[in-house]
Amino acid sequence: MRSDTRAPGPWSVLFSTLALGLGPLVLGGCDKMRGGSETAKGPGPASEAKGGEAKPDAPGGDTILIGEFGSLTGSEATFGQSTHNGIMLAVDEINQAGGVKGKKLAVKTYDDQGKSQEAGTVVTRLITEDKVVAILGEVASSLSLAGGRVAQQYGIPMISPSSTNPQVTQIGDMIFRVCFIDPYQGFVMAKFTRENLKFGKVAVLYDQAQAYSKGLKDDFIKSFKEMGGEIVSEQAYTGGDQDFSAQLTTIKGTSPEAIFLPGYYTDVGNVALQARKLGVNATLLGGDGWDSAKLTEIGGAAIEGAYYSNHYSHEEQRPEVQAFVKKYQAKFSQVPDGLAALGYDSARLLAEAMGRSPSLGGKDLAAALAATRDFKGVTGVISIDAERNAKKPAVILQVKGGKPTYSATVAPN
Amino acid sequence: MTKLLQTLFDGLAVGSLYALIALGYTMVYGILQFINFAHSDVFMTGAWVAYVVAATAGWAALGGDAPPLYAGLFTLFASMLFCAILGFGIERLAYRPLRKAPRLNVLITAIGISLFLENIGQRPELFGTQPQKMPQLLPDTTLFTIADVNFRVVDLTVIAVALVLMAVLQWLVFHTRLGRAMRAVSHNFSVASLMGINVDAVISFTFVVGSAMAAAAGFLYVMKYPGALKQPADSTWILLGLKCFVAAVIGGIGNVRGAMLGGVLIGLMEMFGAAYLSPHMRDIYVFSLLIIVLLVRPAGLLGRATVEKV
Amino acid sequence: MLGARAAALRPGYGFVLSRAVGPFGAFLALAFVMQLVVVPWAGPFYEKLLMDIGINCLLAVSLNLVNGFTGQFSIGHAGFMAVGGYVAGAVTYYGSFVLWGSPAVHGGFLGGGDLLFLAGCLVGGLFSAGAGYLVGLPSLRLRGDYLAIVTLGFGEILRVLLQQTNDVIFVPAQIEAATPWQMATALGGALGFSGIPFYTTVFWVFVMLGLLLIVAFRLKESSEGRAFLSIRENEIAAEAMGIDTTRYKVRAFVLAAFFAGIAGALFAHETGTTLNPRELGFQKSFDIVIMVVLGGMGSISGALVAAVLLTVLPEFLREFADWRLVIYALSLIIMMRFRPQGLFGIREIWELWRKPPGASPAGRGAS
């Protein structure tokens, strides 16, 4: 019989689990029930967030705490770091100018390693532990989606600096962005290709493991076909591939006038080099994922003459741009990329809305953000539309002499 | 026909790269029976060291169509030397103390080292978080063309260097005393040590050779794909490493010739799959081939099924 | 005569009932306490942390059934988690649309939504178990690390396939028109399966964990479980004792896959997560393996402790963002160097003060 030799049964486990489970809780101490029901992501009018009870302005008294979450480590670290630099520059500037409502801004930044689970956790932590009044964050749309659903649930406004996937702001009435969305970007590139470059036959090569790349590809193809263009070949690769000869050979066989590459600059340089080696001489086209000084460094001569859409050009002569570029270079000794500019704009737009908002409660702040009209940002004049997306122009850049140079501005409508 | 031959040639070039990396996996597995997950990071380090050497020496500026031969050779050897020392250090500091521990522990240590190399490599003081462009150290031209198939200098170099290194390894393992010691250790650890073989030295040597091969592969990789030097923590490196490990398993893990065969097979399979089926499914081809081979021939193509005894 | 003696030895119904129902009742009570007392007191962030802890415990303890009990080496546990998560997510997401016309959380505790969620968990677990059977049967016939390699391959193939799925449908009219096949292939692709209602609560996580713990402890003390352990100790000897090693290995593997599927289902419905194929790859599997090894192979309580530690620790290291992963990697290496048997070895936490099993002549050789 086993009754005398058996190990202590589940009862002891129960106690140890209880003890372990309670361990970390000693640190906590908030009296809040479950954050309420999840709001639906639907096509109709965005659902109301339930949070919104007025928050105490800030725990510190004379500072307002903003939360930021980003990929500061991991393989997407460069994106997170640029955005972070932009945000910090903006916050320093605002504080030097006297802050918002007589209070200084402070930023609490957490790293999410580019993982969506971490993104959800840190946004929860920012909201419920650090009691931030608003959240800035994420570049990658999948991470903004994870964090955004949490922010929406707690009724804390969130501004994504650079997630271009339409789904992000469809989460609900607390989620905003300061960048344009992929359908617009796809439309802009299609229009530019069709009308300015007068191309009729275009091939597409996209990264099927990146939602960004896939989404932008779909939007471009849709717009381009509507404008009477022809997609002669549609090829895919998987992020991490380094050899594109098979796809490029197929594309070469269809002799397109241009190739649309809606990927990240980390792959585009490599694709361009291989395309030229294989004797593919079509013009290369791309989106804001190309935006990096590394693009031309890696692509070299192969990327010469290519066009891509972007949020801004550091060469634009608008005073906002020139002032920003100068300050950024002084502080970080590099030319700011689009992500830095968007991070900068997101923080400044938030501060501006805070100034207009009667209180810093979630609902008031969201209403103030939604009422943003003609905000003069570095990345263009921003108006927030009914879907909480930024209505703003896109810039088309051309790589000339190893540098992205300003080519055209395409305004919405 | 041209397409067939061109694909064949490309597949051989990629395959010989894979074979070089697969050798490192198979040698370690043959002797210590564990999957050295840190090997792909040694390969990554090799590629990055090659870049750092070439960039600091200022050879990017030489570039053009005919860079000096010594630049390439020096970079190759510098990278191999660095990684040989790295491999030696990893074995000495991390794996050797675990010689008697369960294999799973060694495996976790390997994962730890892999994480460590990736994340320390991302530090701005080392390689940073940005991808880089490898300076052209080989003439970027087509050497000759037969039946419309382009034989590029880079691809020919990759195949030639890989062949030379594999020939050296073959000679080392099968025709020297040291090689005999290696085979003895891989055959039976304790008996080999009873026979007076310095097992620790042999294992160190295995790591040195494997890591140098990986570094050479890293160098050749950035020569072939100068635009694909991704940041250290990018998943590209691990995926490449996994593929090469699969190559070693397909060939018969622990078997040196098997790794070469497996590498070339995987390379060909990828290239033909990409050219004739759909190019973005190549990971699926590779792993499906693995599962099929394991089901049909569990010991791999050249591996011998071993009978386990009590 | 013999029958009467057997009847005398047979425990009474009351005893059986208390042994069978008691532990589960206790876990149910614990789960209620957690949900109703601890969570309101600790606040939402610690609520989320508790759910993460519970899910990681589920993953670590279930993997322990394979890696710790039978000594096989699986590194595709995240793949089974993905199967369970995606299946359960599809069931509740599309099920909610079909039943109530929106994917919002429906009903209160044990309301319609909760029932759908539980059904989703079960279906997810079963699908995952099925996948475990398909993967395990051929590869568990072989010895050595082949299971590791095949599970790794399985996880990678699954990742690539999931990345190819279509965007999630969120327009009710389109969902009404969609065929089941269209729904099953609209899982969000590379962007991740977003929009799954947040049904997971601390209560459900701890109920599932209680279930698994009861199964695991009962198993460890049963003849079935002894067979598992004997395979770990010496596969050839076990076979010589008449144990059908392949069958037992497959059983352990399928059971582990089932609970990994449930863990995946809980994960899918947790606040602030998006199912993303990229994140359920081999790196996630490695994390789970690390928990098992850190806790000690075969030690259920060890796996629990390790899962708790490894979930909580990164939260506190978050302040050192730059060096976090470097520190993590180094501590892993150092841990393996100085405590290779893990925190508790093969013992349970309450056995630590007893003599190690290996010390007594009857201990290790018993299998």
What's the short version?
Chain A is of the alpha/beta class. Chain A has helices spanning 10-22, 77-96, 116-128, 141-154, 182-196, 211-226, 245-253, 265-277, 293-299, 319-332, 338-356, 362-370, and strands at residues 63-70, 104-111, 134-137, 158-160, 175-177, 201-207, 230-237, 258-261, 283-286, 307-310, 375-377, 380-384, 390-391, 394-400, 403-410.
3D architecture notes:
The complex is a heterotrimer of chains A (413), B (310) and C (367). By secondary structure, chain A is α/β, with parallel strands linked by helices. Chain A has 2 domains: 63-180 and 318-393, Response regulator (Rossmann fold, 3-Layer(aba) Sandwich); 182-310, Rossmann fold, CATH 3.40.50.2300. In chain A, 39% of the residues lie in helices and 19% in strands. Chain A is globular. Chain A starts with 9 loop residues before the first helix and ends with a strand. Chain B is mainly α and 310 residues long. Chain B has 12 helices and 2 strands; from the N terminus they run αααααββααααααα. Chain C is mostly helical. Chain C has one domain (20-39, 46-353): ABC transporter involved in vitamin B12 uptake, BtuC, CATH 1.10.3470. Chain C is 69% helix and 0% strand. Chain C contains 15 helices and no strands. Chain C has helices at 2-9, 13-42, 44-69, 77-100, 112-139, 146-163, 172-177, 180-184, 202-221, 223-233, 235-240, 245-268, 282-295, 300-317, 324-338. The longest helix of chain C is centred in the N-terminal third of the chain and has 30 residues, at 13-42. Residues 359-367 of chain C have low confidence and may be disordered. The chains are: A alpha/beta (413), B mainly alpha (310), C mainly alpha (367). Chains A and C meet through helix 1, strand 2, helix 3, helix 4 and helix 6 of A and helix 2, helix 3, helix 9 and helix 14 of C.
Distance between the termini of chain A: 83 Å
What is the helix/strand order of chain B?
HHHHHEEHHHHHHH
Q: Return the CATH topology of the largest domain in chain A.
A: Rossmann fold
What name goes with the CATH superfamily of the largest domain in chain A?
Response regulator
Going by CATH, the architecture of the largest domain in chain A would be 3-Layer(aba) Sandwich
- Helix content percent band of chain A: 25-40%
In the CATH hierarchy, what is the class of the largest domain in chain A? Answer: Alpha Beta
Instruction: Give the mean pLDDT of chain A.
Output: 81
Q: Tally the beta strands of chain A.
A: 15
**Total discrete domains of chain A:** 2
SSE class of chain A: alpha/beta
- Oligomeric grouping of the chains: heterotrimer
Q: Helical content of chain B, roughly?
A: over 70%
Rg of chain B over CA atoms, rounded to whole Å, is 19 Å
Helix/strand/pairing category of chain B: mainly alpha
Compute the CA-based radius of gyration of chain A.
Answer: 24 Å
